[in-house]
């Protein structure tokens, strides 16, 4: 009986052994899987971090590319501005040289050459700083040459375009002389009166007053010394009209 009990007990232990082994194996698998899972998580975190790093580097690269494009555009614009300034500076140098040459010719009484250079200057450099001055001196050159009609045309245009120019008052006197020489005394008187009123301290004011006085005196003399035939014709006409 006792022997039977031991046999049963041994049998039970023998049956329990495979279950214990299976439990141990399951525990090992769980531990192994848990370890692998932790490793996968660590690797995943590293991968996410690497991806974020790459994205940040991409942003920096994009920003650098954008800055590079801006820099290239700025350099290109700077080059354009610099080239434009150099061209304007060179044009100004050439324009001033041409203007100065024309003035020199005018001073040395070479009127035709001076006129040609002034006209050339105004045609080539219509926006240059010396355009008002060149226009005035062109009128003076025509006057000196004796070309009153072109001189008048230039001075009229000058007075229309450059009212605030420092030579405006001079042009009034110059044009008044021309109008007087062209027998346009009414216009000459208007110009002289305007000059005397607006520029009473002008250095040519004495000459302007003298010219005005001369023109007005000439007009009075002309009216007094009209031919007798003209007076008789006028009286006859008036008589005829009043009949």
Automatic annotation (TrEMBL):
Sequence intervals crossing the membrane: none
Entry's Gene Ontology molecular function annotations: transferase activity
Keywords from the named record: Transferase
A Pfam family of this chain: TPR_6
Signal peptide from the UniProt entry: none
Keyword Zinc: no
Protein name listed in UniProt: TPR repeat containing exported protein Putative periplasmic protein contains a protein prenylyltransferase domain
Organism, scientific name: hydrothermal vent metagenome
